[in-house]
Amino acid sequence: PRICVVGSGPAGFYTAQHILKHHGGAQVDIYEKLPVPFGLVRFGVAPDHPEVKNVINTFTQTARSERCAYYGNVTVGRDVMVAELQQAYHAVVLSYGAEDNRVLGIPGENLSGVYSARAFVGWYNGLPENRDLKPDLSCETAVILGHGNVALDIARILLSPLHLLRKTDITDCSLAALACSKVKRVWLVGRRGPLQVAFTIKELREMINLPGTRPVLNPADFTGLENAVKDAPRPRKRLTELMIKTALEKPAEAQGVQAAAPQEWGLKFQRSPEEVLPTADGTRARGIRVALTHLEVRGSVGTGTALAGLAMEQDAMQPLGISPKTALTRTGSQEGPQPHAGLSLAAPCACAGLYCSGWVKRGPTGVIITTMNDSFDTAQSVLEDLQVGTLDVATSREGFGAVKSILCSRGVRPVSFSDWEKIDAAEVARGKAAGKPREKIVDPQEMLRVIGH
Ligand code: FAD
């Protein structure tokens, strides 16, 4: 059977891995819109968490399998349609992640100085579409909306000493911008309370111990919580206890360096964003007005204002909205290369052979392990459908042979995995000079130049 996977993030690679491992005759082709693979492992995971990126070694092994092929620089829905892939393959698995398209729906959110967390992360991680974000870091206070690990990642990058970041694969241009940053205070604002925070203890501890920065937690926010978490599951209990300990610690008890730290960060609970306030000339964000919320009673009981020049909306991501039983189509004519009109949802799919895995399926929640398990499930469905004959493999399919002609007629030249390995080597070489693991190439045209396209 010829199977096609759309997207080369963890979902795409884990789906491919499982199918290849459990079906000795399957050929899996992975299509990716960027020249470079690995999705959010490259463009989401924080640069100072290199150990998380070790999964790339497993993905590389999968890609090097002789029954697996990688075709980068191919945007499905623009360069080739899902329907065309379905004709070329026995099964198509959609693993193209979640788009950044959620809005807060509050006045002022489009002001300059307000960024989606995804764009900000994409900027410091070298995601081509965000490379020109140029966030304004000339203010002293930043507000991040959200209490998850991504919010902590951003706070940590904003406040980390430069000498620590310099050893990571953070892009040169973001390092230069951070070197001029005036941000010295970061508030993480959440709609709910301390018992509902979504970050994990490792990331919290890292933030608490960040050199040159001290945590500012209000002890009153934690009153009575020790009792409340007595019987809670262990991870929640430990996380809450660490917040309580940090909140109650007097500066003198904190480590010497920490007490005198010039920078600070803190958690603000039960605050719902109401409005981003503009500067007098109306050109950029100057602060954010939040409503205090009760957890039991929905609605606000008052408002307060935080002054900040930089605001970030975490959770600003949504899946393009696909479920296993839905098909992707592209709006407009399907002839010839065209600007990407976006993939949109169509009516429930009548045909067998279309699957999805990862954030496409579940939305933007969960870590790489969750995505792995989910992708193994999807791969298992494909294998079972092959076994019981739901997927008809009696008719042979041409696979990439058919897609190659389509791409060629549209002037699209795919990037192979060995091409990627050349880009990889070029990045590592550039990084070496600066003592970094790699210097990412952020311009797709330059990536293509490196491989002689
Ligand atoms: P993605 O990783 O987004 O991959 C989707 C791929 O599809 C991308 O390569 C994309 O370019 C491609 N694509 C999109 N559209 C098309 C198209 N039309 N045609 C072809 N290809 C397409 N998890 C952890 O375990 N540890 C962490 O430290 C961690 N940090 C994170 C930090 C951030 C900022 C974010 C957002 C997530 C983080 N995660 C982390 C979660 C983890 O990244 C996700 O669980 C995982 O990446 C989801 O995998 P996916 O393959 O579904 O999506």
TrEMBL record:
**Which terms does the record give in the GO molecular function aspect?**
oxidoreductase activity
**Enzyme Commission number:** 1.18.1.6
Q: Does the keyword Transit peptide apply?
A: yes
User: Looking at the Swiss-Prot or TrEMBL record, what is one Pfam family this protein matches?
Assistant: Pyr_redox_2
* Subcellular location field: Mitochondrion
Membrane-crossing segments per the record: none
| Residues involved in NADP(+) binding | H147, G148, N149, V150, R191, R192, E203, G366
Domain named FAD/NAD(P)-binding: which ranges? 2-158
What cofactor does its activity depend on? FAD
* SUPFAM superfamilies hit by this protein: Nucleotide-binding domain
Entry keywords, A to Z: Electron transport, FAD, Flavoprotein, Mitochondrion, NADP, Oxidoreductase, Transit peptide, Transport
> Could you give a single Gene Ontology term from the biological process aspect?
cholesterol metabolic process
Q: Which reaction does it catalyse?
A: 2 reduced [adrenodoxin] + NADP(+) + H(+) = 2 oxidized [adrenodoxin] + NADPH
Q: Name one GO cellular component term.
A: mitochondrion
Pathway assigned to this chain's UniProt record: Steroid metabolism; cholesterol metabolism
Binding-site residues, FAD: A11, E32, L40, V76, W359, G366, V367, I368
Give the domain of life: Eukaryota
In its keyword annotation, does this UniProt entry include Transport?
A: yes
The record's similarity note reads: Belongs to the ferredoxin--NADP reductase type 1 family.
**What is the protein name for this chain?**
NADPH:adrenodoxin oxidoreductase, mitochondrial
